[in-house]
Amino acid sequence: MSDWNDLFLGTIAVATLVMALVQIGAVVVATRVARQAQQTLTAVHREIRPLIAKASVVADEASRTAALASTQVQKIDRLVTDLSQRVDETAHIVQQAIVTPAREGVALLAAVRAALSALRGFSDLRRRSSRSEEEDPLFIG
After folding, report:
1. How many CA atoms lie less than 13 Å away from 107 in the CB half-sphere?
2. DSSP states of 20-68 as a string?
């Protein structure tokens, strides 16, 4: 039986040795993979840093541009508001200087026309009254 015991003991020893070698191989492969991952991560960090710096510069520039645009929009708003007020003031001045006297002139012309019409009406009445006096004696009725 000792042959069998030695055989089983030898099989166990060989199996343990194979398992130890497999574990050492797994540790070596895991170490290599970890080194490669670390190198890849370092390379990615190296590549990303300039991109992050450029993105930061672009963001700062965009912020400055937005601030300038906001300032320009405010200036344009003030300009349009001032222009609108000046146009309103000018229209009011034009109305006071031209339209109001023109209306008064039109009203004065209307008054003159009315007066002339009235005078014509009186002269027409005189003519009619003198004609009617002439026509009355001739009226047969």
Report:
1. 6
2. HHHHHHHHHHHHHHHHHHHHHHHHHHHHHHHHHHHHHHHHHHHHHHHHH
Residue pLDDT, tens place only, 6-61: 899 999 999 999 999 999 999 999 999 999 999 999 999 998 998 888 999 999 99
pTM of the prediction?
0.42
The 3-class secondary structure across 81-139, one letter per residue, is HHHHHHHHHHHHHHHHHHHHHHHHHHHHHHHHHHHHHHHHHHHHHHHHHHHHHHHHHHC
**Residue 56 to residue 62: CA distance in whole angstroms:** 10
Token pair for 7:
């055989």
How many CA atoms lie less than 13 Å away from 141 in the CB half-sphere? 5
Q: What are phi and psi of 140, to 5 degrees?
A: -115, 115
CA distances from 40 to 34, 70, 87 (A): 10, 44, 68
What angle is formed at CA 10 by the lines to CA 6 and CA 15, rounded to 5 degrees? 150
Per the model's pLDDT, the better-predicted residue between 119 and 50 turns out to be: 50
